[in-house]
Design goal:
heterodimer; A: about 120 residues; mainly alpha; elongated; B: about 170 residues; 2 domains
Chain lengths: ~120, ~170
Amino acid sequence: MTVLSFFNYWAVIVLMMIGYYCVIVRGNMIKKIIGLGIFQTSVFILFISAGKVIGGSTPVLRDGVSVYSNPLPHVLILTAIVVGIATTALALALTVRIREAFGSIDDDVIDAAQQDDEGR
Amino acid sequence: MVGLAVVFTRDLLKATMLFAIYSLTIAALFALLDAGDVALTEAAVGAGISTVLILAVLALVPRHEKTAKGHNLPALAIVIITGAALVYASFDLPVFGEAGNPVHQHVGPYYIGETYADMGIPNMVAAVLASYRSIDTFGEAVVILTAGIGVYALLSVRPRRRQRREPEQ
């Protein structure tokens, strides 16, 4: 057990926090979606690194290989990537609609527009 | 190693391109971690399709972010505190890459041992995805269908209020 044993987890945490910061600070919706994407990939890396066995190889059966990495996390993440793109597409469609309705995709502009509505 | 590619992503407005590069880097990382199938999917879906989608939306919305007013200290504090808590928690996780980790004890060995006898194909990921866990994959397909219907419903309705721009379609 060395420092390197946990390096992957720390990389995941750093990426996750970058995505988190991007989501809460940026007012722009596209930026928020990209931040969510970064957050999401960090979780993917966590799962994939859990499935890795040092000295193992890609889980495709071949001659002369006896140690394989665990295929189960790979399957889960494969599904997660595809579901992730579906949710991203939905979020982008929402962005387009918000742009049509409010003329902007920035949080503060939309807030101001809504307060206008209520004051009227 | 990967973090560097992303730190820049926050600065530019045209972060989409950097996001695509980031996805490719992640795909390379997956390949290094023995996940060939996942790497291919990430390269095609993350770097390809999502970039195209974001670019398509960028064509409809303003290209420049409104304000770039430095740092937001409370948010930064929250992020750092959360990150520190997660790092503290990471010491309880199993050591990276050891064959005796709990994740390798359950059904993983069964898939590795029996895939060829059960399915007759060498690719375990495909076998698990399409045969052992095909109901899950069906659920995934349902999610995609729902998302497709949602996108269609959102984009096909004409905006009723605040018609400032022409409804593009």
